[in-house]
Protein: Phosphoribosylformylglycinamidine cyclo-ligase
Amino acid sequence: MTNSYAAAGVDTAAGDRAVELMKASVAATHGPEIVGGVGGFAGLFDASALLGYRRPLLASSTDGVGTKVAIAQALDIHDTIGQDLVAMVVDDIVVVGAKPLVMTDYIACGKLHPERIADIVRGIAEACAATGTALVGGETAEHPGLLGPDDYDVAGAAVGVVEADDLLGPDRVRDGDVIIAMASSGLHSNGFSLVRHILAERGIGYHDELPEFGGVVGETLLTPTALYTAPLLELLAEHPGAVHALSHVTGGGIAANLARVLPVGSWVELDRASWSPPSVFRVLAELAGDSLESTEGTWNLGVGMLAVVAQDRAADVVAALESRSMPAWVAGTVSTAARDFDGFEQGAKGVTGGAARLVGSYRA
Structure:
């Protein structure tokens, strides 16, 4: 009987090979604040870079990609999942006005395929570079017997910093503020359990071609999550005081996530007619026999981020986003007038916030 780690299904040599394949892409995200390079037990960030802040607040976030990884595994395409991971984590940090500093990742797999892991980490590193985030460390772990040989899951965590005086949130929101919606790149990384269920029920495979989808089903579904961090940080610097709050539209849908960043007693009605949901949402809803409205608590329907801005600065904000290739439009207005909140979403995920709902019909 062989009592070795390899016999138990864990290949440490493959792990070392994966690290060698990813080192260059990880190192490319490092600036002068990163100490020690790649491979240490802990990633090191020189905090003297924060000495210029009067009162620096650290912002942290952690997340994963969810069951979207099942589609990546089915298509054997692994270089887009990394951007999904970074977007889900880092774009939560920018919501409070913070600049992301460092990120770490964790990949669990049934069997370690070095090239596959390197593809995932390369995608993470490229997205980190695009958002100004240093990828300072990570872990890849084989879990034979728990995960299948081709199965894996990814998670990540990041830390950012914001000057206390610049912190965004409900306290800044005022009556009459304008809601600006920013376009999503597609489904992003939420609601894929429903997507997979709909396709399975209709006998549609990820390799099938659907003209309405714009090509191969799985490839359309793997469109990576949009990265909002860089254009938003530039916007905040270019137009100080214009943005009062931001909301990342992830799990729970549009209205619930907006309600989280509104003050108690305020409300917003978002006008569905202000945008046209992309075809991927329309096709999936039609396949399910549902209306687009019935999916609003699951999918982003074309809106990936929302900004609450001062009314007299709204046009400048839209123009600034558009100039950075970020489609944006006015979708609603904050009100504090007394009203019945029946039919509104009021806060979410433990937050007691304002109220929001969608009204009207989507543009064709």
Observations:
- Residues 22 and 118 are 5 Å apart (CA to CA).
- The mean pLDDT is 91.
